[in-house]
Design goal:
The chain is mainly beta and 222 residues long. 13% of the residues lie in helices and 35% in strands. The chain has one domain. The strands form three sheets. The protein has an eight-stranded antiparallel β-sheet, covered by helices on one side. The chain has a three-stranded antiparallel β-sheet with strand order 9-10-11, with no helix packed on it. A hairpin with an 8-residue loop joins β4 and β5.
């Protein structure tokens, strides 16, 4: 059964079809004031380090990403085709036609990591934008999607805002750069395995925990 809101064709030769555009951009954050880090409730871990965990935000983002990926599995898999292109830093945007909230999905492939087990992990930043084209009124959420060397979707880390998305791949690590009110840089190592949970620093020992959500939306395995 086809999902009605996915109405735009996705050409392998061009991303300029109706509802889907591309732009050369190395930035993975949202526009201007539309992407501000929100405060979370602080909690102290057993090691004494302060950690921030926003479960409601993570659940909401995860739900939005799952809805989009479920629709893609039933139609054209837009994120997968961006990964297949393999153009690091190039930004692609898909708009849901007829949606009163002017929902858009912004996708940027940021690179790959080869693990010690000789497998390859590929990383895609996916930003969900609702509320129109005014960056002051729009709402931004995001997730980093993981794929294997065969471009099969493995799962994702849903984050509470676009400033929590990784900015680049560096060796075998995924780099999260501090922005705005967060000045810490976090590097997550993927050389051994996919972490079940990652901790992205903000200021000092504070930051956010994000679990890895493994849900199979691959149309080849349904």
């Amino acid at each position: 059964m086809k999902t009605p809101f996915l109405v735009s064709p996705f050409s392998k030769d061009s991303f300029s079809n109706a509802g889907f555009t591309s732009s050369a951009s190395g930035s993975t954050s949202a526009d201007g004031a539309g992407a501000k880090r929100t405060d979370s409730i602080s909690a102290r871990s057993g090691t004494g380090k302060i950690a921030l965990y926003n479960s409601k935000a993570a659940f909401l983002v995860c739900s939005l990403i799952q809805i989009f990926l479920t629709a893609c599995s039933q139609n054209t898999d837009y994120p997968k085709q961006v990964v297949e292109k393999g153009e690091v830093g190039k930004q692609f945007e898909y708009e849901i036609k007829g949606d009163p909230d002017r929902t858009r999905y912004r996708m940027t492939y940021i690179g790959s990591i080869k693990t010690k087990s000789d497998t390859t992990l590929k990383f895609l930043n996916l930003i969900n934008i609702t509320g129109g084209f005014d960056s002051r009124k729009a709402h931004y959420t995001g997730a980093v999607l993981l794929y294997d060397q065969h471009n099969n979707y493995l799962g994702d880390y849903a984050v509470q805002d676009t400033l929590s998305l990784p900015v680049r791949v560096e060796g075998t690590t995924l780099v999260f750069s501090g922005q705005q009110d967060c000045n810490a840089i976090t590097k997550i190592d993927f050389s051994n395995e996919i972490p079940k949970e990652i901790f992205i620093k903000c200021v000092g020992d504070s930051g956010d925990f994000y679990p890895f959500d493994h849900v199979d939306f691959s149309p080849d395995q349904q």
